[in-house]
Design goal:
Elements lengths: L2 H30 L2 H27 L13 H33 L11 H26 L2 H34 L2 H28 L8 H10 L5 E10 L2 E10 L5 H19 L4 E8 L7
Helix pairs in contact: 1-2, 1-4, 2-3, 2-5, 3-5, 3-6, 4-5, 5-6
Pfam families: Cation_efflux, ZT_dimer
Protein name: Putative Co/Zn/Cd cation transporter
Subcellular location: Membrane
């Protein structure tokens, strides 16, 4: 299974689970008399939308290189990740505003409806399923280096925490009445700050990549691979950037002035193979060969 197929499989799994939770929570909130669970259900409906957007982006990523996308379509993955980061920021802001409104609504003594006890079971099921999705998606994101999957993983975790807040509010409303229900909006405000933080981090990372920012954490590894190749005396002018799930890089290598053009070409080919073996077969490598007796050294 290649990288894109794995990302698609995980995204489809998330889509199916979110669709199930959207149905359970909206129906449970409506018939069980829980406004908090109903709102959480609408959040799951929004998650279904982001999952569909992720699958659309991954479908575009799979398209082959063409004349107007000579570097491939990898940045569509990053574009969707940036959109998800923005969605998390919006969701976090909405949660905070809703929490503040709910808090003052309860203080003012506005309509309060005690929810049914069975709604708690829907919340517990949601937390368990979302935590399982978070762990599975986070592991896949770490193994593939996907910003898109990382944003989805943290979306699952934020949903799990948000549902924990719903559970606290449900328990408070069931056993302590109106004043116990204050725990719901207060917890929602706390979770919203976490969601905003994750959304900001995801958006910043995605926009850094969209604007050709270099993933500097990979520089030492790239340098080590180049220096390990036989025949390379030194190198300079290294530039690299991420294109979704793969890298593009170019640099100058300094070679012995006494070798033939074919030998220089063979050394450059070996460097390309070593870099693709380390960073993946889709890595784009452009190398300019120079004699070692001129040009700056690294």
């Amino acid at each position: 299974m290649d990288r894109t197929e794995r990302l698609t499989k995980i995204s489809r799994l998330g889509l199916g689970c979110n669709a199930l939770l959207a149905l359970l929570k909206t129906l449970g909130g409506f018939f069980g008399g829980s406004a908090a669970l109903l709102a959480d259900g609408f959040n799951s409906v929004a998650d279904v939308g982001t999952d569909l957007a992720a699958l659309w982006g991954l479908r575009l990523v799979r398209q082959p290189v063409d004349w107007d996308h000579p570097y491939g379509h990898g940045k569509f993955e990053t574009l969707v990740a940036a959109s998800m980061g923005a969605a998390l920021l919006a969701i976090g802001g909405g949660m905070f505003a809703g929490g503040v409104r709910g808090f003052f609504s309860i203080l003012r003594g506005e309509t309060f409806e005690r929810p049914d006890l069975w709604t708690i079971w829907i919340g517990l099921f949601t937390v368990g399923l979302k935590e399982w999705l978070y762990r599975r998606t986070k592991r896949a994101a770490d193994e593939t280096g996907s910003v898109l999957l990382l944003s989805k993983a943290w979306d699952h975790r934020s949903d799990s925490l948000a549902t924990c807040v719903v559970l606290v509010g449900l328990a408070g409303a069931l056993w302590f009445g109106r004043w116990g229900a204050l725990l719901d909006p207060l917890g929602a405000c706390a979770v919203s700050l976490l969601v905003i933080s994750v959304g900001w981090k995801t958006s910043r990372q995605a926009f850094h990549e969209l604007t050709d920012g270099a993933p500097l954490e990979l520089e030492a590894k790239i340098v080590a691979v180049i220096r390990s190749c036989p025949g390379v005396i030194s190198f300079h002018h290294l530039r690299f950037r991420a294109l979704g799930g793969y890298l593009a890089m170019d640099f100058h290598v300094l070679l012995s002035p006494d070798i033939t053009l074919k030998q220089a070409h063979d050394i450059a080919t070996d460097v390309e193979k070593a870099l693709r073996q380390e960073f993946g077969p889709n890595t784009l490598v452009t190398i300019h060969e120079e004699p070692a007796d001129r040009g700056p050294s690294n």
